[in-house]
Amino acid sequence: MSCEAVLRALGVELLEIEDWNCCGAAAAHSLSRLLSLCLPARNIAKSQQREFPLVVPCAGCFNNLKKAEKALKEGGESARQIEEIVGFSYQGSTEILALIDVVVNRIGLEKVREKVVRPLSGLKVASYYGCALVRNPKITQLDDPENPVYMDRVMEVLGAAPVSWSYKTECCGADLALTHGDRVVEMVNRIVEMAREAGADCIACSCGLCQANLDMRQTFETEGLPVFYFTELMGLAMGLEGEKKWWKKHLIDPTRSLRGLNLT
Question: In terms of residue numbers, what domain contains 13?
Fold first, then answer.
């Protein structure tokens, strides 16, 4: 909801892919490499019909789509099989973009700055990218794979203060939640501990699955650290309506880190 509201305010029209399917990012690769390529390729095929960029708000989906794109561009037997199974001819015309890339490089940070009416002054944010958005860099071709800064730059434009920390690209274990839940809790708590140690008031994510995982699996005796999807903070700074509906989707009260700063 925040994604739609923010892009609408920035003059971007979103058109949902008709009859889209799950890209299989969480599990398909463990069953069949070909299946893991064909599932996202079907969405590429449907996007190709519209001749618009394919904008992806999920890091796992973005990574999987880029893997399929790479296989299709390389040609050979894999590309032939994918095209045959999906039933299309790859034209290479669909640009696959992560949402954070669209905000930083297509819309531009100056346009975002112009829309800010309530700067997030005093809010210290740990920008969390997860393990899939910028890696493998030969596939994703996005930001710095070791120290990505796109989200930090967005937070600065919003008036917030991005903290310096070394867990930006650590895996949160979301794909293992059903099979290795105890291990995932350890991974989540470690990331949150490091964000706290860096002085963060909250964590901002560029992946909905990471956001949900970090939000639901913290097991501290003290109050949990709020976790936002980055467009929620953009919408807040831009004064957009609907924030109360966004906050209700959270398990850890996101307003706790905002009240003392008079941001809610």
Answer: 2-97
Which H/E stretch holds residue 190? helix 181-197
Co-location of 252 and 122 in the same domain: yes
3-state class (DSSP) for residue 223: coil
Q: What single-letter amino acid sits at 176?
A: L
User: Which distant-in-sequence residues (6+ apart) come within 8 Å of 11 by Cβ?
Assistant: 107
Q: Give the whole-angstrom CA distance, residue 246 versus residue 236.
A: 10
- What does pTM read for this prediction? 0.95
- Report which secondary-structure segment, H or E, holds 1: none
The tens digit of pLDDT for each residue in 178-217 reads: 789 999 999 999 999 999 999 999 999 999 999 999 999 9
Q: Are residues 85 and 141 located together in one domain of the fold?
A: no
User: Are both 72 and 188 inside the same structural domain?
Assistant: no
Q: Cα(197)–Cα(145) distance, rounded to whole angstroms?
A: 23
Specify if 147 maps to a domain: yes
pLDDT at 50: 87
Q: What is the mean pLDDT of the chain?
A: 95
